[in-house]
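From the thread on structure requests for the teaching lab: each student submitted one protein with a one-line request. Submission from student K.M.:

"Model NlpC/P60 family protein from Helicobacter saguini, tokens only."
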Amino acid sequence: MPPTTETHNKDNKTITQTQIAQNETQNDISPVRQKIVNDAKQYLGVPYKWGGSNSSGFDSSGLTRAVYKLNGLNLPRTSREQSMVGYYVPFSEIQPGDLVFFVENKSQSINHVGIYIGDNKFIHAPGKGKSVQIDNLQDEEWRKIYKGARKYLK
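Reply posted by the TA:
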């Protein structure tokens, strides 16, 4: 679950890590990160398809892999494999374009991934009967199964 611990800003006011993440995303982001976000958004509404990796249908890792490939970056095929490459990112430092990972099963192995787009939101292919959509990391459904974030860009 994303941490919501408190910290203090330079004026000694209490803010949560969630607010820190929101504040950081309001700053300028690199052109590559912005392009990843924009490329991901072009797939909004594309249906979920298990094993899918193109605009006729995506699963979660197929979406992330396709978007990164458009930007010259190669990711492994599965969400579990994607979670093992790149660099760990604390929740308070997630930037647009980073990948966020989830566990939706009893085995506790990572089996879902999305692309962070800023303001605690991420884009993903959620599952059977749904389409690529944007959700909020702070929604309880996602908060309780959140397992971490990875970056592949400097």
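TA comment: Helices lie at 17-26, 31-41, 60-70, 79-82, 140-143. DSSP finds five helices and ten strands in the chain.
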